[in-house]
Amino acid sequence: MTRPTDSLIIFIARIALAILFLWGGAMKLLGYAGFIAYLHAHGVPYAQFMAPIATGVELLGGLALVFGMRMRFVAFVLAAYTIVTAVLGHDFWNITEAAHQQEAVVHFWKNIAIAGGFMLLAVTGAGRASFDGLRTPRGGLRG
C-alpha cells in the first residue's frame, strides 16, 4: 500500500480488531476460573494448559495489532485462532435448543468473518502507521 488513506484505513481496521482481542483477553484474565470452566464445558482438551495460551494469544495478538508488529505472521495466527474458537466455542451443530443454536450460528459466522479480515490483513500488511511500516523502505510497494 502506498497511499496514505490506505494506511489510515488499515490502521483503523487493526484498532477495531485489537479492541475485540484485548477486551477478550482482559475478560479471560479477570474471570480466569470461569474461562477454564467454559473450556471444560465445551470439551476443550487440556483446558488448564489451553487457557493461558488463549489468553496470551488474545492479549499479545491485540497488542501486535495496535502497534502493527510482524503483522503478516500475527494475522495468520489470529485467523487460525479465530477459526479454532469458532469450531470449539460456537459449535451450533451440537446445540438442540433453537434460540441458543441460532445465537451460536451467528457467533460462529462472525468468527469466520473476523478470520477473513485477518487473512486480508495478512495480505495487505500493517500499513505505514505501524512498526512494520517503519522498517519498510518508503519506495517499497507494501507497508
Question: How does this model look, in words?
Answer:
The protein has 143 residues and is an all-alpha fold. The protein has one domain. The protein has helices at residues 4-30, 32-41, 47-67, 71-89, 98-124, 131-135. The longest helix has 27 residues, at 4-30. It is elongated.
Summary, kept brief:
The chain has 143 residues and is mainly α. The chain has one domain (4-135). It has helices spanning 4-30, 32-41, 47-67, 71-89, 98-124, 131-135.
Largest sheet: none
Number of domains: 1
User: How many DSSP-defined strands?
Assistant: 0
Low-confidence stretches: none
> What is the average of the pLDDT values?
90
Radius of gyration: 17 Å
- Helix content bin: over 70%
Structural class by secondary-structure content: mainly alpha
> What's the N-to-C terminus distance?
6 Å
Helix and strand run? HHHHHH
How large a portion of the residues is in β-strands, by DSSP E? under 5%
Shape: elongated
Q: Work out the helix count.
A: 6
What attributes characterize this protein structure?
single chain; 143 residues; mainly alpha; 6 helices
Write the layout of secondary structure elements.
Elements: H1 4-30, H2 32-41, H3 47-67, H4 71-89, H5 98-124, H6 131-135
Helix pairs in contact: 1-3, 2-3, 3-4, 4-5
